[in-house]
């Protein structure tokens, strides 16, 4: 079943998450129509290879054209229109930057895998539960409702101001008419009656002025309360969700809703500002003793300006944190002299600001004590915000060509680059701009989440560990001295984040049994880890007992192994992986002989092995484990083929494949058959063929096991032997001779 078919079978709550990341940059109808073709391409590799990305883009357009021809014959007008629009988008937007569409599609496929993994997990973790609480959802609805009510109130006040203006014009006209009469005419009874009417009208004017000022004051108060409480909390929650998403958690949404709220509030405040300006204009034409306008208007205007300043300052956010395109799953880790991207948005979307705001990027601004290392940003570091580059028309700017460069120290050498000193140093990328609108000048500043600067790719695993620990442990967006005294983390939350590393990076998260094994690995014993606190040193700096590496280095090597060598097997759920030697024997001891499981090595970095159960003649159960396969050996022979072709030579010298059933009872070929690189080769004689008289051959891993041996075997026990070679040996040599040759 294709990945897209699995996505379509998800529950509605997961489908809503999928809907969030498909937009005009990569429309969902293309994902649907070209599902199998899209999934068969290597978009992740193309994201780092411009030539490959260009070829894939051209092939994608060809695929769209073929779909267009098909739907044209079916006369599906709506789909024809959409496909033509998509074709125009692909040709126009990505022709000059084909790697961009490769990054987008790669990210979409990865998010689908993460959501599929999350849907397969029986229970949400504590972090994910907190991000999706009903209290948060209720507050979101309340914010949207209150913003809409405020907008309506401001519009109603507009009508009151217009009525007040009309009433004052009528009063002004009638008053000036009386003033123009001769003195004798002013003493008439009719005029005296008109003067009484004017006095009543002035009283009404005074009442209406007070009423309008009161309504304006209420609107301002409601905006102030909303900004101070719910809107601020909503923005902080979005930033927290962004932090969690950056370390592999659920995709964060809600920024478009926040933009709508910020924009409506800004429009309401500017509307109130215009109302106060109109009152000032009315004041210049008419005033009187006890007039409320000169007393209340200055205070209200000052409050409106104050709220506008705060609203604009809070609306300037980093929409997408700094990230190297070469490592999309490792944001906030930046390598010197390698380009990274970062995107900012102004949540107040006003047409008057399009291309009017220029944003400047700097690094470590006003920071002088956190680190001895100093950096500058090379590349285009000043750009204008606009509404044209984003698919949703938001007012944003994306820096795509920034490069951090390390400056030499005063002594002429670079700063300390020890393995942990560098990866525990946090730096900040700052952005500043100025908004000039309707007589207001507002200076805006914001910063990225802390980033780690590395000068060598070998530092990336520890740098990423620092990013995980920081964003798991604190909501503070700018604590650059965090690692001077890093706090402990709750083990249950850390395990949840570790599962996210697998779901986001290799498409399948960890189940409760796998997480229990990791907990035991970290704590050295069986623990109830709900409230257990784990130190940073235990996670990333202290070696595991009896090993020369830390827990995180061990786990990162496993992630790399899965990604490069056993990804399909992992996604299918056939790699148990995280199980101790003791636990695997408990699982296998009562199973049919030939039942095996796959687990990651605890003693070799990036190694995977398999263990099977066998039964001796006396009925005793025995277990056999193979020397772990590492990336070097797996680069030469696919792991699925190893499982298919693996042979052992027992004491009776008869080679056979001992692997029959994947735990608990899945026939081996049923589990792994679709992943074999080719069908099993039949044994052939030299005369049976082969190119230019050669015998076709494959490598077969072979082990020799003695009856009394249950220990893991050394690499010298694993020899390459082709089926054809073995057939020839059986024809001309005795079993004893073959054993001698193999030994």
Tell me about this structure:
With 743 residues, the protein is an alpha+beta fold. It is built from 26 helices and 21 strands. The chain has four domains: 118 residues, Transcription Factor, Stat-4 (Orthogonal Bundle), CATH 1.10.532.10; 179 residues, Up-down Bundle (Glutathione S-transferase Yfyf (Class Pi), Chain A, domain 2), CATH 1.20.1050; 119 residues, Immunoglobulin-like; 180 residues, 2-Layer Sandwich (SHC Adaptor Protein), CATH 3.30.505. α12 runs parallel beside α14. The longest helix has 58 residues. About 4% of the residues have low confidence.
In the predicted model, the low-confidence regions spanning at least 5 consecutive residues are 411-419, 681-690, 708-720
- How many structural units, i.e. domains? 4
Query: Which architecture of the largest domain does the CATH hierarchy give at level 2?
Result: 2-Layer Sandwich
Number of helices: 26
Based on CA inertia axes, which overall geometry fits? elongated
Q: What is the number of strand segments?
A: 21
What is the percentage of strand-forming residues?
Answer: 5-15%
The main sheet orders its strands as 15-14-13-18-19
């Amino acid at each position: 079943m294709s990945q897209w078919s699995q996505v379509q079978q998800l529950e509605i709550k997961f489908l809503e998450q999928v809907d969030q990341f498909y937009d005009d940059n990569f429309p969902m109808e293309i994902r649907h129509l070209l599902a199998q073709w899209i999934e068969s391409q290597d978009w992740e590799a193309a994201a780092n290879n411009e030539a490959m990305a260009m070829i894939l883009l051209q092939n994608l357009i060809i695929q769209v054209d073929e779909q267009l021809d098909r739907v044209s014959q079916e006369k599906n007008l709506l789909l024809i229109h959409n496909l033509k629009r998509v074709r125009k988008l692909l040709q126009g937007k990505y022709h000059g930057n084909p790697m961009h569409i490769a990054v987008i599609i790669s990210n979409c496929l990865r998010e689908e895998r993460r959501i599929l993994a999350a849907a397969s997990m029986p229970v949400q973790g504590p972090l994910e539960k907190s991000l999706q609480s009903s209290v948060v959802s209720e507050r979101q609805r309340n914010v949207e409702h209150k913003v809409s009510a405020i907008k309506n109130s401001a519009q109603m006040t507009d009508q009151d101001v217009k009525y007040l203006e009309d009433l004052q014009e009528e009063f002004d006209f009638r008053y000036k008419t009386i003033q123009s009469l001769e003195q004798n005419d002013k003493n008439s009874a009719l005029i005296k009656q008109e003067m009484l009417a004017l006095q009543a009208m002035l009283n009404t004017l005074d009442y209406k002025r007070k009423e309008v000022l009161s309504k304006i004051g209420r609107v301002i108060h409601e905006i102030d309360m909303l900004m101070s409480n719910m809107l601020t909390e909503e923005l902080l929650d979005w930033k927290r969700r962004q932090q969690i998403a950056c370390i592999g958690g659920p995709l964060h949404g809600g920024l478009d809703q926040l933009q709508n709220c910020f924009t409506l509030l800004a429009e309401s405040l500017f509307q109130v500002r215009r109302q106060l300006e109109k009152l000032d204009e009315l004041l210049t034409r008419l005033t009187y003793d006890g007039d409320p306008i000169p007393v209340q208007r200055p205070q209200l205007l000052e409050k409106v300006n104050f709220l506008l300043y705060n609203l604009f300052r809070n609306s300037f956010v980093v929409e997408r944190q700094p990230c190297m395109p070469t490592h999309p799953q490792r944001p906030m880790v930046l390598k010197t002299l390698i380009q990274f991207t970062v995107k900012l948005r102004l949540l107040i979307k006003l047409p008057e600001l399009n291309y009017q705001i220029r944003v400047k990027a700097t690094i470590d601004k006003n920071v002088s004590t956190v680190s001895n290392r100093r950096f500058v940003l090379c590349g285009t570091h000043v750009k204008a915000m606009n509404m044209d580059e984003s698919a949703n028309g938001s007012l944003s700017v994306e820096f795509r060509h920034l490069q951090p460069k390390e400056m030499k120290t005063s002594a002429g050498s670079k700063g300390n680059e020890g393995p942990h000193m560098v990866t525990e140093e946090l730096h900040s990328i700052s952005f500043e701009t100025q908004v000039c609108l309707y007589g207001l000048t507002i200076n805006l500043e914001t910063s990225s989440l802390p980033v780690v600067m590395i000068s060598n790719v070998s530092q990336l695993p520890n740098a990423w560990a620092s990013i995980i620990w920081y964003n798991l442990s604190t909501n503070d967006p700018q604590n650059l001295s965090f690692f001077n005294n890093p706090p402990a983390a709750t083990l249950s939350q850390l395990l949840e984040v570790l599962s996210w590393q697998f779901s986001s990076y290799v498409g399948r998260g960890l189940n409760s049994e796998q997480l229990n094994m990791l907990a035991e690995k970290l704590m050295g014993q069986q623990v109830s880890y709900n409230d257990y606190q784990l130190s940073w040193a235990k996670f990333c700096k202290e070696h595991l007992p009896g090993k020369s590496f830390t827990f995180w280095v061990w786990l990162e090597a496993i992630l790399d192994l899965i990604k490069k060598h056993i990804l399909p097997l992992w996604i299918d759920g056939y790699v148990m992986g995280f199980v101790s030697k003791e636990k695997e024997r408990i699982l296998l001891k009562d199973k049919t002989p030939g039942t095996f499981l796959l687990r990651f090595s605890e003693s070799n970095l990036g190694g995977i092995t398999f263990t099977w159960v066998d039964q001796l003649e006396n009925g005793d159960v025995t277990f056999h484990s193979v020397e772990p396969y590492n990336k070097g050996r797996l680069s030469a022979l696919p792991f699925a083929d190893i499982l298919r072709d693996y042979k052992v030579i027992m004491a009776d010298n008869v080679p056979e494949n001992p692997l029959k059933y994947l735990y608990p009872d899945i026939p081996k070929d049923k589990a792994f058959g679709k992943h074999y690189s080719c069908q099993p080769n039949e044994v052939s004689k030299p005369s049976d063929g082969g190119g230019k008289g050669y015998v076709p051959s494959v490598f077969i891993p072979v082990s020799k096991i003695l009856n009394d041996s249950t220990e893991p075997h050394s690499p010298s026990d694993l020899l390459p032997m082709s089926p054809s070679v073995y057939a020839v040996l059986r024809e001309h040599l005795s079993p004893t001779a073959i054993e001698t040759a193999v030994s």
